[in-house]
Each structure stands twice: as C-alpha cells, then as structure tokens.
Amino acid sequence: MRGHGRFFGIPTETDARPIGKHTIRRVISTFAPYRRRVGLVGLAIVVTSGLGVVNPLLIKAVFDNALFGSPPGVCAGGGPCPDLGLLYRYVALMVAIPIVTGVIGIGQTYLANNVGLSVMQDLRNRLYEHLQYMPLRFFTTTRTGEIQSRLANDVGGVQTVVTDTTSNILANVVVIASTLIAMTVLSWQLTVLSLALMPLFLWLTVKVGRARREVATNTQKTLADLTAVTEETLSVSGILLSKSFGRQRHEIDRFRGENTRLTGLQIRQTMIGRSFFAVVGTFFSITPALVYLVAGWVLSNGSDALTAGDIVAFTTLQSRLFFPIGSMLQVSTEIHSSLALFDRIFEYLDLKQEIADAPDAVRIPPTEVRGSVAFRNVWFRYDTPPEERPTPVSPTDLATANGVPRDWTLEGISLEIEPGQLAALVGPSGAGKTTITYLVPRLYDVQRGNVEIDGLDVRKLALESLGDSIGVVTQETYLFHTTIRRNLLYGKPTASLEELEAAALAANIHERIAELPEGYDTIVGERGYKLSGGEKQRLAIARVILKDPRILILDEATSSLDTRSERLVQAALEPLMTGRTTIAIAHRLSTILSADVIFVVERGKIVERGTHDELLERGGLYARLYDQQFRGGLVQAECEDGVVLSTGEVVRTGSG
C-alpha cells in the first residue's frame, strides 16, 4: 500500500500487523448467517468420516471370523473353512457403506460450496458497499487498480479456503480422531510407532506456514501493482497518453518487470515447503513396512497379541490416517496464506467512513429545499501528513507563497447565497474555488465552522437527501461505457422516454442523438470517448436536468471546450440554471457578467465580493484578473451571427 497507508490506518509494507486470533474470529463470524447449513455440513462430515473407520474394522472381522475363524480340518486340505454366510453379510456392509458415504458426500459438497460462495458474495458486497461510502480523499490517494485488486484478487484468493478447506479441516479432524482410536484399540504399540515423528512435522509445518504467509502477502501486493499498471495503461486515457508520447515500449517493459516479479513470487509460494512435504510423504509410505517388521518381531517371540486381521486392519487404518495428516499439514500452510488475504480485506473494511449520517440526521424532500447556501467562518485543509508535503492530494494544495504550501486550504470563508441566485467564484488557479464547491455536497467535511443549506448544517442532513438536492456539472464529464439512454437515466432511473427527450432538448443534444444510427441506444464507449467534449458536456447537463436539483454546482464546465461547443453548452446551461441556486467556478466572461454575486478567492480567503460593476469600480484583484483575461482580448466567443464577447462588452446578435 502506498500513499495513504499511514493516513487511513492501513499497515504499510514495513509495518504489516501480525495475523492473530482477532482475524480468525472475524473469519468465523462471516459464517454466522449460515450457521444452520454449516451445522448440516458438519453433521454430514462427522457421519461420512465416522463411517470410514468401519471398513478397516470389517476387514479384521473378515480375516479373523469369516475367512480363518472356523476350526481346522473342516474343509479340504485341512485348513480353516470360510463362513460364507458371515462373509456375505460383511461384504454387503463393505459395499453399502461407500455407497451411503458417497450419497451423503454429494449433499455435503453442495452445502459446503453453497455456504462458501455465499460468504464470498457477502465479502464482496460488504467491501464494495463500504468503499462506496469512503470519503473522496481515499480515492484521490489510492490507485484504482489497488482497489480492484482487493475486490477481485484478494477475495478470490480466499475462495478455496472458504469453500473447501474449512470442511476439509473438520473431515480430517474426525478421520484422524476416529482412526487413532481404532488403531489404539488394535495395538497401542504400533500406534506409538506410527506417530513418533509427528511433533517434529507439526513444528516444521508452523515454520513453513509463516514463510508461505509472508510470500502470499507480497504476492498479493505485487498482483495489486500489476492490476494497477494494467488499469492505468490500458484504459482509453492511458493508451492515448502512451501512444501520443511514444512510450509503448516503456509501458511494456514496466508491465514485464512487474509480471516477472509476480511470477517469481508465485513460484516461490508454490515451492516453499515442497521438500518438507516430500519428506513427510516418504515417511508415510515406508511406515507400513516398519509396522510389518515390528509385527514380525512380536509374533516371532510367540506372542498372540496380534492376529492377521489386526495387522491388515491396522495397516489399512494407517494408510487412511496418512492422507488426512498430510492434508492437514498442507492445509495449515494454505490457511496461513489465506489469513493474510483475509487481513488485507479486513484492512479495507476497517477504514473509517468519515463522511456519514449523523445519528439525528434530517431528511428533507428535494421539493422542499429552498436552495439558500451559507458558509459560516469555514476553515478546511486536506490533512496531508507533514512528511508527505509538498506532494498534493488536491490541486488547491499547489497554491504557494514563495514556494511554501499554505497550512489551510480555506481560511475563515463566510458567504451567503440566496435561493435562485447565480454565484460566481473567481480567482487564480489553486485559490480554493473547487474546494468550496466540494464542501456543499459533503465530499469533504470542514474542520471549523459550518456549511449550511436552508439554515441547516449539511452535517445534520442525511447524505441521500443532500445528494438528491444537489447537481454537479464538472469540467471532466464521466460517462459509463453503456448507452446514452442508460447514462441519462442515471440522473433519474424512473424517467420516461418523453422526459429523456425533453431533457436532451433543453440541453441542446437531442438533435445530435437523433443523428446517431442507434439514437438513444448508442454505446458511448469508455468514458464517452466516442463523443466530442461538447457532446459529453451536454449529455451531463441533460442528466442533471433530469435529476432536477435545487442547487447546481458548475465546476469550470466549459473551460476546456472550443468556442462553438462552449456556446452550445452555455445555451444548454441557461434553462438548467433558471430557478435554481447556482454556484459556478467562472473562467468565462459570460458567466461572470450574468452572476448575481461574485466571490473573489485568493489563497483560501474571500478577498472581494459584489457584482461585476461593483468589483470593477473597486479596482482590486477582480479588476486585475478581468483586465488580464478579458480586456486583452484573450477570451472571445463566436456565435453563428457575430461576435458575442468583445473587449469587455457583451454583444448579443442573432440566435447567440
């Protein structure tokens, strides 16, 4: 984890917390909603594992009672004569038990996978829901690929443990316990011989498990890095950047480097402990031979403590014991690796959701919102740790005085906007204008002071109610990789076709949509790259028109557009702003001239306020900005019938 670990309380690569009982308890708690099904799985495991001991004991009975239990001389050759009736019954039981076990096993497998995959689904849902309510600050300091890796790779990495290993552990425990009891009953001496080296194997297993856990953690971090590189470089924006700068070979080499590192870690993860398990397997394979040797010594001394049935049954039980013990040794290392992944998942689930509803949060229907906005002595900063400065987490942190970042992004901001007013925020780049607009919908919370809507502190308003009352149009329009219709319906999912078309008409985009081969069902492409900048902006405006918020925020909505696109977007904005409270970050003269009130922001403070004419008369910062940007003729807008803006005057001609 890089960049935000210390701030959000996530362990970094150098301070990863150890996995302990707390993690194990949390893993177990994920199964709580499915306790009945887990109980049925446990019962099925106990039954099938217990039945597995019966066949070796039946083998002893077959040898000692059915085959060689009759007195000698009855059958030809003078040997013992088999009791066929008893043999038939034993054989019938030996056939029936595996059939019953197999049927129960099918049901057990279904239930175990059903529970396991349901737990996986719950983890994904919880993680995604938790991330949806994380503050914007988290996403500005975390790579998208890292987040995707937590959702996909980490949750997917524990699937085997959740779906199979948990039930296997119980099955192996029951098998080992029942088998040891049966072996001890047959011969405690041979049982001690079989288990003599087990403590050494258990100790080695713990050592191997720790090593595998460390490698598994590093593997997931590298996988997250690789996912992040892929997401960054193979997105439309990333591939456009690499092609325009001719950096494809650099990106290929970067990907190959991360991929090589990942492959090395995966190989190491696979091979750790393989030599150990090879030794264990060899020991388990030769132990039956040692049992035969010891049994021969016992019988050669004239002891009748062992029968042929005892020896055959014991070696059968012993072979049945080896697999679950070997499996438990292997499972223990898998569990250590998977607990590391669970810990990474819980790290995200433990992140504090700083922006949340207050216990006494008020819900106000959007239709009842008047739209007044007020800042009362607001102080705000992004809380970048001092050791990470001057690297910014927001563009506003770039504003410096003599090269020194300022301590507060906003200092003592106080302003009032009446319902239905158009308020313009003007000032140098990095002055704090965007940050002011972030505080109204609670993308961030203030450290001091209050932000109010209709006289209520926004922290006392329910987030859903607040979101319904505010619409935002930003410079960088985000469109989903789906149809125009679905992108518009994001503003109002229940909108009818007539409402869609009316919103598109108001945003000056309906005619363009009608020209497309599939109309409203046209796929816009990744981030809307099939559309021009002006078309994307007008779609965003239509989306907000459908939402019909009482408060509108325009964050440099036209600053990156060409003159014609700007004119179309400005025309689309006029009906959107009508009757709404609008806060606009203004870089265009047309927005400034039509504003009811202008707030001039410099280095996080409001240094001037008033109308365009009042501020020009004052001859302060606004007048200087106006002279620099407009009187010099740097910004002009053309319409179809003539010039709209010219040296400080607005000339409206024709349809413009």
Structural key phrases:
alpha/beta, 24 helices, disordered C terminus, 2 domains, six-stranded mixed beta sheet, 656 residues
- How many DSSP E strands? 16
CATH topology of the largest domain: ABC transporter transmembrane region fold
On the 0 to 100 scale, the average pLDDT is 76
- Can you tell me the CATH architecture of the largest domain? Up-down Bundle
Number of domains: 2
Query: Main sheet, how many strands, which sense, barrel?
Result: 6 strands, mixed
Structural class: alpha/beta
Strand proportion? 5-15%
**Which consecutive residue ranges, at least 5 long each, have pLDDT under 50?**
1-18, 385-403, 632-656
Shape: elongated
Placed side by side, the strands forming the largest sheet appear as 8-9-10-5-11-12
- CATH class (first level) name of the largest domain: Mainly Alpha
C-alpha-based Rg, rounded: 37 Å
Give a verbal description of the structure.
By secondary structure, the chain is of the alpha/beta class. It has 24 helices and 16 strands. The chain has two domains: 27-349, ABC transporter type 1, transmembrane domain (ABC transporter transmembrane region fold); 366-478 and 540-650, Rossmann fold, CATH 3.40.50. It has helices at 5-8, 21-29, 35-51, 54-67, 84-132, 136-140, 144-157, 159-186, 188-195, 198-234, 236-244, 248-271, 274-300, 308-349, 433-439, 463-469, 484-489, 497-506, 510-515, 533-547, 563-577, 589-593, 612-618, 621-631; strands at 373-380, 400-401, 404-405, 410-417, 422-426, 448-453, 456-457, 470-474, 551-555, 581-585, 597-602, 605-610, 638-639, 642-643, 645-646, 649-650. It has a six-stranded mixed beta sheet, with helices on both faces. A hairpin with a 2-residue loop joins strand 6 (448-453) and strand 7 (456-457). Helix 3 runs parallel beside helix 8. The protein is elongated and about 125 Å long.
